[in-house]
Automatic annotation (TrEMBL):
Keywords: Oxidoreductase
Protein name: Short chain dehydrogenase/reductase family oxidoreductase
Cytoplasm keyword on record: no
InterPro entries attached to this UniProt entry: NAD(P)-bd_dom_sf, Sc_DH/Rdtase_CS, SDR_fam
Family: Belongs to the short-chain dehydrogenases/reductases (SDR) family.
Keyword hit for Oxidoreductase: yes
GO MF annotation terms: oxidoreductase activity
Alphabetical list of SUPFAM superfamilies matching this protein: NAD(P)-binding Rossmann-fold domains
Documented EC number(s): 1.1.1.-
PROSITE patterns, alphabetized: ADH_SHORT (PS00061)
Length: 253
């Protein structure tokens, strides 16, 4: 089997880096973009075969160049993992700066659209094209004080469903992964934001965050990566248009 050619956005850290590691371990040819130059440098050191470039996912011009470079470097494209996204502020709608709202929409929705838009012609040339959109448990529930983030993650569900229908005839599968509370620095920042709004301690907010889960632990990023590898593999050939929660059975926000 020919090695998969995989483009991963925001792959320098967190879930993205775990996905890079999983695809690399499988023997895939991986291209990563990120806005974090130090993270990319470390990625190249840790995984010598991985190709990287700086890219601002809020910039359409950056994205167009990045996707073309990725396809040229990899010799085509089989898998696109739209992992880039920002959390945005924690605030009620009436106090949320409209500019901050727009910033989250620009990266999480418009950025994902633009990467996908420019990648589709290359994916159509693959015999087993696959797209993963990284949504969130916030794309299943409403989240008070997180309106911009939640709205964009819900939007990615509609985007995924629509893409799966449009691209099915080209044998391109499109799925969304919906992680819950993921262990790592990013979720710690979310907890800090919640604590500032609520006046509770970070420890109390952690307990509250896990309260709605039947399995009381944070999600391991490696398990999300394993899911990404599986659904883009030959074993996932019949999986498309699906929303795949990996959230320790979260019941509510």
């Amino acid at each position: 089997m020919t090695a998969q050619r995989v483009l991963i956005t925001a792959g320098a850290g967190g879930i993205g880096r775990a996905i890079v590691e999983a695809f690399t371990a499988k023997g895939a040819k991986v291209f990563v973009c990120d806005i974090d130059s130090n993270g990319l440098a470390k990625l190249e050191t840790d995984f010598p075969g991985v190709q990287t470039t700086l890219c601002d996912i809020s910039s359409q011009a950056d994205i167009e160049k990045m996707v073309a470079l990725a396809a040229k470097t990899l010799g085509g494209l089989d898998v696109l993992v739209n992992n880039a996204g920002i959390s945005g502020p924690t605030a009620p709608v009436e106090k949320l700066d409209p500019a901050e709202w727009a910033k989250v929409v620009q990266v999480n929705l418009n950025g994902t659209f633009n990467v996908t838009h420019f990648a589709i012609p290359f994916l159509k040339q693959s015999t087993a094209g696959s797209i993963i959109n990284m949504s969130s448990v916030s794309g299943r529930f409403g989240y008070p004080n997180r309106s911009a983030y939640s709205t964009t993650k819900w939007g990615l569900i509609g985007f995924t469903k629509t893409l799966s229908i449009e691209l099915g005839e080209f044998n391109i599968r499109v799925n969304a992964i919906l992680p819950g509370a993921v262990d790592g620095p990013r979720f710690q920042k979310v907890l800090e934001g919640r604590a500032q709004v609520s006046g509770k301690s970070i420890e109390d907010e952690t307990v509250l965050a896990l309260d709605s889960q039947s399995i009381k632990h944070l999600v391991n990023p490696r398990h999300i990566a394993d899911l990404a590898v599986f659904i883009t593999s030959d074993s996932g050939q019949s999986i498309s248009g699906q929303m795949l929660p990996i959230d320790c059975d979260m019941q509510h926000a």
